[in-house]
Predict the structure.
Amino acid sequence: MGLAMAIDNENVFTTPETDLAIARPALEAITVEDCHAALRRTWSVAAPRLFVSGRLSESDTAEDVLAAFRARYEEYAGEAPGSEAILTYDAVSVVRAALRDGARTRDQVRRYLTELGVERPAFRGLGGPIAFDSTGTSVRPYLLGRVVGRDSVVGLKREQ
């Protein structure tokens, strides 16, 4: 990364020694009680949720991974995950994949995302494959149907 790009991305070049010199005054002033109080404030919100995930195995099917996510979520939250939880999990997972691939700046993460389904395979998310077309539009399968009456759906078909 060149100097001009680093400045534009609000990044600076430092050394571990410089980072320690910057942090040392705060590290010397902080107490265990300060850390404990900050932790209690951070986690004092109603129903905080923290999900730590890992790969089950390369051979797990998408259904296996989704079932494991649902079980962990229900165990912790006491309710089944909705589409919002699954989309959030997928969003965090795809950004994590970009970081693992070497992305370190906003532009590099954006480039990684726009390459999904174009220059690299779609990302395997819990909600299905995550990919974008050449214009950056999300390409996701969806079900299309028409609701008739209160409880029935007709004309259901999967679109790609």
